[in-house]
Design goal:
- By secondary structure, the chain is an alpha+beta fold.
- It contains 30 helices and 20 strands.
- It has six domains: about 200 residues, Hypothetical protein af1432 (Orthogonal Bundle); about 130 residues, Beta Polymerase, domain 2 (2-Layer Sandwich); about 80 residues, Beta-grasp domain (Ubiquitin-like (UB roll)), CATH 3.10.20; about 80 residues, no CATH class; about 80 residues, no CATH class; about 80 residues, Alpha-Beta Plaits (2-Layer Sandwich).
- Helices cover about 50% and strands about 15% of the residues.
- The strands form six sheets. It has a five-stranded mixed sheet. The chain has a four-stranded mixed sheet with strand order 12-14-13-15, with no helix packed on it. The chain has a four-stranded antiparallel sheet with strand order 18-19-17-20, with helices on one face.
- It is elongated, with a radius of gyration of 38 Å.
- It starts with a helix and ends with a strand.
Length: about 725
Amino acid sequence: MKLSKIEEKIKTYIDDPDLSWIRKAHELSREAYRGQYRISGEPFVEHPLGVAYIMAELELDLTSIAAAILHDIIEDTEFSREDIAEEFNQEIALLVDGVTKLTRMDFKSREEQQAESLRKMFLAMSDDIRVVLIKLADRLHNMRTLGYMREEKQIEKARETLEIYAPLAHRLGMSRLKWELEDLSFRYLKPEMYYELSRKVAANRDERKKYIQQAIDQIEKALKENDIEADIYGRPKHLYSIYQKMEEKEISFEEVYDLTAVRVLVDSVRECYEVLGIIHEIWNPMPGRFKDYIAMPKSNMYQSLHTTVIGPHGDPLEVQIRTPEMHRTAEYGIAAHWRYKEGGSGEEDFEDKLSWLRQLLEWQKDLQEPHEFMEALKVDLFEDEVFVFTPKGDVINLPRGATPVDFAYYIHTEVGHNCVGAKSNGKMVPLEYELENGDIVEILTSSDSSPSRDWLEFVQSSRAKSKIKRWFKRQRKDKAKAQGKKSLNQAIERENIEIPSSEREGVLKEIAEDLNRKGVEALFEGIGYDQISIRQVLKKIPDDYKESEDLEELISDKKKDKRSSGRGIQVKGMDDILVRIAKCCKPVPGDRIVGYITRGRGVSVHRADCPNVKEMKGEDRFIEVNWSSSESDSYEVELMIEAVNKQALLNEITGVISNEKIELHSVMADTDKYNQAYIKIDVELSSKEHMKELMTKIENVSGVLSVSRARPS
């Protein structure tokens, strides 16, 4: 890099510049770095000159460019800040010293060191925003020449750039630097994906250019008809932003439709809106895809109109409309406003644009301890993301609002599944705690633990959401299969259907295919999900496996001593016939009941309102049944309890049952996200009146909202 090239660039935006300090800084650097070489083999002075040229591309002031040439001199030579102040002035010395502090920044496991790294960056910005502009230019030049470093160093620098410097460039509105920093980092962090996307983008570049040119031609024609002059061109999407969209939306490269957008530059804000109207006349806008960043600028000063329309050939087309001034701000951000400040105008406007930064930097006046500084670092510097540390000091980048559960799934799927608690900066925090910049996160796990459905209410990352949903889907699937298999086997036994074990798999496989299910497991799953009814399956079992008895034989062959489950039931016109209480509705004395003659199982007694009764075939198989009085008889009853979840709730409810000397068969309990508990109990009762008495006593338990009889299954 020759000094003359930097001088030529400066002359494109400063009339008759005084280049004396630039030349003096060059001479001092050349002498100070004499004999020093970069890993690439080129003289070290090439690096500060490269940084200075980037500063000139940003059209920054001469003081900034002189400081850029000197930015490494305190750290790498014998020169001190005082020497720089004596040779030049205090302003340049402070800029150089500020950048020197930033270049010592690194990430280590101790919280004090992490805090100090962030403090140095923010304090440098508080003294002079140009310190960060020099640092960003320094980092960009280093990333451009990163190929000469060893792989370990490449990854370290690329990660630091992607997680610290690219977001900072974004926050300062410097999209041109942000995009290049992101793409360079992407190249070293995920080289295979980087080069694969590069090849794919290059492969259809000509086709894409042709499509964009058709769109540009149509826009130009329409604008000329309306006497609007505009600069129109295509804007290709950067590789890292393509990769981000593929990851976030979980789509392939071929599904990314906005690889190139059309950008329209016009002279005034009024014309921006006129162009928008004209474009919407040419093509239909896509609903929900219009954004007015002119009326509502982004926090990083970005202004533009964005719209997505159904463009040529019916493909989506993104169009951005802005003025040249807006475009310059979009490309260079805070650097674009520096010249207005230097010129003495717009001082108040410049300070307004940095209000978010000023608020952040107020902390350093009162917070002396690194730990205090870290605790206070709560302002969202990186607009859409948060970076936190593992206990080993690795930096993890997560979406804004991310929680310890997001962090756990980022580390490993099993860490997420087994997560039971979390610590932030050494203190226990809830799993729904929103992580903040600089937090040191530790995940507590247990091999016996599993995901909670409540997690889906607060996790932010698509990775965590998909892993949790997949786990529950697998659990539901397994449970449905087991339930479906159990229900079918019970039905086959109840209907006295005998299929030899050697033939069962084949029979069920044929039924599964007939019901458009891929295999017996899928058949069980369909039954478990209530997508296939048991009756559908039973109907398709060949008659060879079913008993064919007429009603007279059915009744006479099954007369036996009444089982205990049928005590208290009288069957009209019959004695000594097997009677059983239906488990689907579990009637008790006081319920209206109906009898149904089954194959091989005697008379099944159901509640008259049981939905299964409507499904039963053969009117001649229904028989009249009545309750007979017997104080010693007892019956199973299922009750549903809704309550506000609280500590010892279950103990209080079971205590009531125990005090009444009622036999408890089973308890099932669950809660929802609104802290409401749902409890199902199976108890042994003597009558409907007995049931009502128990329900009343349970309703009197503190926190219980309602008690009802379980609906027949």
